Amino acid sequence: MAKTENLNWIDPRDDLLDWLNVADWEANGEGFQPVRVAKAWRDKWPPKTAGRATSAAGMAVRFRTDAQKVVFRVTFREFPDETPPAVPAGAWERARPNFFSLYRDGKYVASMAGDTHFERQDVTICDDRSVSGQSEVQVLLPFYYRNAEIILHGIGVNAGAKLSRAPEDRRPRIFFNGDSITQGHGVTSPRETYVWQVAEQLNCVGINFGFGGSGWADRIVAETIAARSNWDVLVNMLGTNSFVGSDAFGKPETAAQYTQKYDAFLGAIRQGHPQKPILCVAPILNRADLARGPNRNGERSELYRDGMARVVKQRQQTDKNLHFLDGLELVNDPLFLLVTDNVHPNDAGMHRIANGVAAALRPLVAGLK
Fold first, then answer.
1. pTM
2. Number of compact structural domains in the chain
3. Alpha-carbon span 139 to 271, nearest angstrom
4. The domain that contains 312 carries what CATH number?
5. N or C: which end of the chain has fewer CB within 10 A?
């Protein structure tokens, strides 16, 4: 560890640190950027989905220490917006603070924000002189869109503090695949996403594979999931991005075409994991439902939901480990459960989703412990 400013600095890739949801580290300037999907896979993905795969959504680090002060030296990447906000209220997310969440020995302590700029900065995660003795520290990284592209330069602990690797986490691992709702758009801190809430409720490890504005059930993403062995249960919450009637490249896609693609998506995962439990969650209430009008193909959102339900029901005839949850049973009221864009859940809506998904998963996870 390098020593500066009365802090000892450790490389973020050090073996003493146990990272969650980091597939690879990529050199970037004077630091390293953690990514959720390795470049070899991203190069095969639709460009927008590949871009979201470099966000820090669902990333967390664990280690044991008696440090009273912990500091993350980071740079948030700046890059241009791909498109203007879909609705005027959508601009608010561009000014979101970069929140980290701190846990000590499995108990939530606090969330703290870094400065909203794109230069190197030191974010103090904790500075508590009452800390004595070693404990397990876990820090969740920011998860949002523009401010979740993070470069790590080092993790600092006060001089003289001890640091060691946390014991292996052997709890069941739930893999959450989805769009911006899974990534966490709508809430403030990483611990408030439905993915993290479900993992806490079920005492499991949650892996966040949510890609804002870019979850289209593309087969190559399913093949990526199928190639991974570090999960026990899959939650597949897709469909919202397809309500507009377009695919990953902006080409028209009818409900019938999406239904076929959704079936192929599940089929690709089953080729790699024929027996693991899968929970398919249809979309929650969306502005497409409230508009009462057709999309670019002249179709309503219910055609997409019906197609997903039909695929799952047909597959369930031979697949007893495939399950279905209607998202409208989770969020069906925009007034108190959605933010102003009428797409993403607010704190209450995210909590409602977490409770419903956890209830559906509970019997599936029970057999794994």
1. 0.95
2. 2
3. 35
4. 3.40.50.1110
5. C
